[in-house]
Structure formats: structure tokens, C-alpha cells
Amino acid sequence: MSGPLWLSRARLRRDAPIDALTRLLVSEGAGARSGAAHKLVWALFADAEDRRRDFLWREAVPGLFYLLSRRRPEDRQDIFKLDEPKLFSPVLSTGDRLAFSLRANATVARGGGPGKRGKPCDVVMDALYTLPAGARADQRSHAVESAGLAWLSRQAEKAGFRFHPSSGDPRVMAYQALRIGHRDGGMKIGVLDFEGMLEVTDPGIFVAAVASGFGRAKGFGCGLMLIRRA
User: Fold this and answer.
1) For a 10 Å CB count at each end of the chain, is N or C smaller?
2) Which pLDDT tens digit goes with each residue over 116-149?
């Protein structure tokens, strides 16, 4: 999908008509917030019933969202304080170094037979399942770090960037397993937060990758890489 990209910031209003909604998003657990925020953010782009998602979003702190979209968001329900969207068209060159922040649902395909696609599996849980049950609790932090960074390195290889040795390794800042929706009919996703420095190796491929997002569960606040000049 081509066309301009818009970077926007939206904050939930705190006035009386939506005070209860704001309290829900700020006070509930992360999984419940992601499910509720999914519906709210969709409202900013719901100009047609059959519209497909053409945006990425991330909740930076409770009630504050960053959006990267093919269309300018419109707050028809007057739920947000929406800053004026800015065109996202970074002018990059090979070798540019950027600070980045990424929240991603990182998965690996497992269990597929010949000619069949495997089932997506959270990379951290996949790494832990290879360990004896009694060792998983002690090895959890190591699995988060090693599996998360291995996944991120694979993304870099195909997305036009790398991690420069002199800038230090990227860091896994957090990992959480979120339950989205009701326990019986919902889903569980693993979410990793990364930060660090990267070096652009192919500007065109890199910008296209940022526009498409990284990993899965993009409708639930994952996949948006925020970048800035180092």
C-alpha cells in the first residue's frame, strides 16, 4: 500500500464525559487496556465498515498513544486530544545511526509439516519449552534476553538495518504475557520492549519496514518502531 504516512499523537481526554473510560484504561491490567485501546484507536480510522487496518499504534504511557498511519486520524467521537498529524518522511542515508524504541509480539513458526505454515509461537515461551520444567523459572530472564535479541537480529537482516558494534547491543527493556479479551474466548500474546541504537544499511527497505511494522499483533499495539536521530 502506497501513499503518505502520518505520525500522530493522541491523548485520552480527561473531562467528565469520558472520565470512566479513562479510569478503565489507566487502572486495568495491561491485557485489558490493550483490548480496550484496540477499539478506541480503531475509532480514529473507522470511516468505512469494511476498512482494513492501515495503521500502527503504541501506548507510550497509559492514555497516550503514538500512531503511524496511511490516513490522517479523525476523532469523530471526541474521545482524544489529537495533535496535528505530521508527515512521516525521514530522509535517511546508508550509515545513519538512529535511536529506536520498539514494542513487538515476537514469534517463531513451529509445528508445520512439509508445505504447511507452522503455528506462531512466542519466542520467549518457545525458548523456555526447550528447558526442563524445573529450570524454567531460573532461566526466564536469560530466555527473554537471548530469544528476544535473536529475533530482533533476524528482523534487522531483512529490514535494512543492523546494530553497530561501537553503539553497544540493543536492550530488552521488558517482557510481559498479555491476555487479550475474556479468558475463554481471548488470546495470549508475548510482548517485548526493545531500545537501543541501529545503523541504516538500506534506507528504502528500512522506511518500508517501519511503515509495515515488526512482528505480529499489530492491531493490539505492537509493531511500531519509534526512531530519532542519535
Assistant:
1) N
2) 777 889 999 888 888 777 777 778 888 899 999 9
Share the mean pLDDT of the chain.
Answer: 85
Question: DSSP assignment of the chain, as one string?
Answer: --S--EEEEEEE--SGGGHHHHHHHHHS-HHHHHHHHHHHHHHTT-SSTTPPP-EEEEEEETTEEEEEESS----TT--EEEPPPEE------TT-EEEEEEEEB-EEEES--TTSPPEEEEHHHHHHHTS-GGGHHHHHHHHHHHHHHHHHHHHHHHTTEE--GGG---EEEEEEEEEES-TTT-EEEEEEEEEEEEEES-HHHHHHHHHH-SSB-GGGT--PEEEEE-
CATH class of 97-229: alpha beta
CATH 3.30.420 fits 6-87, yes or no: no
